[in-house]
């Protein structure tokens, strides 16, 4: 088990991160769901208290940057239902299949997300979880099950699902009606045995076994199997819903106001209903799966981050049309790095290291073309 020498500094609304451009607040959205009225409140907060945009995270949450009044922000978000428990601000980390209940999947996991979030918020013990601990509810298609959750329920039929621990099938099968209880038991057991660990993957074998034992009374046992991952849903239409990519995960407040209810995904995309694809494209979102910009992502870079060696988003923008899959990072932390295969483009003195090879910024486009 690793020895953590510093406290978990994962930000929330009340415990912000002091970035180079000012305080950064992270708003948890269990299951990624953002109601229309909540979207309007967030857009107003971004305009009046932040930098005029909301920023999508790799866990389906939203961030506000350069926040000027934390107390005012917390009050507005509380009234909108986006901060229902001050004590659980940083621990409401729940991924869910974003198209669940809208298109495809074996079952609708949205009620499970509601029940799970309520169970977390009403547990004083779970308020002490690390801000990085992650729960997930997969409707059977295998999208969020591959996102490295500490504990996940993945539907294997409309009425039953597999329990995954640190992304691996445990062989425990839990009825859908007990899924929230099983995930809560796993989280409670982790909290009791974790010591200084932040994630299940940091526990030793005895610790992991202890966590798993907590859910056995709620499950039946089968032989563990490899459950395939589908990856993110493609951009474009899915029945009555549209998946739209947000370039660099930065969504202007004016655009957010016009979208109505939506689901934020862990792949910096949005699931929108009631707005057609052409309208979303007109708003600057990407709805064409063949768009060459889809494979390029980047951390915030400078001037937003003091650790970044370059304005990586400006440099990434210059190569968007190449059709490469690449992530631009301003430093070795590689914030926002996608789980899918991609080229590693790391800012360094004199340019960028592309898969470890130093390339001057002026030659970056040619270097990436050579990787196609």
TrEMBL record:
Q: What is this protein called?
A: Precorrin-3B synthase
Q: Keywords of this protein's UniProt record, alphabetized?
A: 4Fe-4S, Heme, Iron, Iron-sulfur, Metal-binding, Oxidoreductase
Lineage, top ranks: Bacteria, Bacillati, Actinomycetota, Actinomycetes, Pseudonocardiales
State which Enzyme Commission number(s) the record gives.
1.14.13.83
Q: Does the keyword Electron transport apply?
A: no
Report the Gene3D superfamilies cross-referenced here.
Sulfite Reductase Hemoprotein, domain 1, Sulfite Reductase Hemoprotein,Domain 2
In which organism is this protein found? Saccharomonospora amisosensis
Q: Which Pfam families match?
A: NIR_SIR_ferr
The residues covered by the Nitrite/Sulfite reductase ferredoxin-like domain are: 25-77
A molecular function (GO) term: 4 iron, 4 sulfur cluster binding
Concerning InterPro entries, the annotation shows: NIR_SIR_4Fe-4S, NiRdtase/SiRdtase_haem-b_fer, Nit/Sulf_reduc_fer-like_dom_sf, NO2/SO3_Rdtase_4Fe4S_sf
């Amino acid at each position: 088990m690793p020895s953590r020498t510093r406290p978990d500094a994962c930000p929330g609304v009340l415990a912000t991160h002091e970035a180079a451009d000012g305080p950064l607040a992270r708003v948890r959205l269990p299951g990624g769901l953002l109601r229309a009225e909540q979207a309007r409140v967030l857009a107003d907060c971004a305009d009046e208290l932040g930098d005029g945009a909301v920023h999508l995270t790799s866990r389906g949450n939203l961030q506000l940057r350069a926040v000027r009044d934390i107390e005012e922000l917390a009050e507005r978000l509380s009234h909108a239902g986006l901060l229902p428990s001050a004590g659980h601000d940083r621990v409401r980390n729940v991924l869910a299949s974003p198209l669940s209940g809208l298109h495809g999947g074996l079952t609708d996991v949205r009620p499970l997300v509601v029940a799970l979030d309520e169970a977390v918020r009403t547990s004083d013990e779970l308020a002490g979880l690390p801000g990085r601990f992650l729960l997930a509810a997969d409707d059977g298609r295998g999208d969020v099950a591959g996102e490295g959750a500490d504990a996940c329920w993945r539907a294997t039929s409309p009425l039953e699902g597999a329990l995954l621990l640190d992304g691996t099938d445990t062989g425990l099968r839990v009825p859908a009606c007990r899924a929230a209880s099983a995930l809560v038991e796993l989280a409670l057991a982790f909290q009791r045995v974790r010591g200084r660990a932040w994630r299940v993957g940091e526990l030793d074998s005895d610790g992991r076994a202890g966590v798993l034992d907590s859910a056995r009374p709620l499950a039946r046992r089968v032989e563990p199997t490899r459950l395939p991952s589908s990856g993110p849903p493609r951009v474009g239409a899915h029945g009555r819903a549209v998946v739209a990519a947000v370039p660099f995960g930065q969504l202007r407040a004016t655009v957010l106001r016009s979208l109505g209810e939506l689901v934020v995904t862990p792949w910096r995309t949005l699931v929108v209903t009631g707005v057609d694809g052409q309208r979303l494209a007109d708003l600057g979102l990407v709805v064409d799966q063949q768009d060459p910009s889809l494979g390029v992502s980047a951390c915030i870079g400078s001037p937003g981050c003091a650790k970044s060696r370059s304005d990586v988003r400006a440099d990434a923008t210059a190569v968007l049309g190449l059709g490469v899959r690449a992530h631009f990072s301003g430093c070795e932390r590689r914030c926002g790095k996608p789980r899918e295969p991609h080229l590693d483009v790391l800012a360094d003195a004199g340019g960028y290291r592309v898969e470890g090879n130093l390339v001057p910024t002026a030659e970056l486009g040619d270097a990436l073309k050579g990787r196609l």
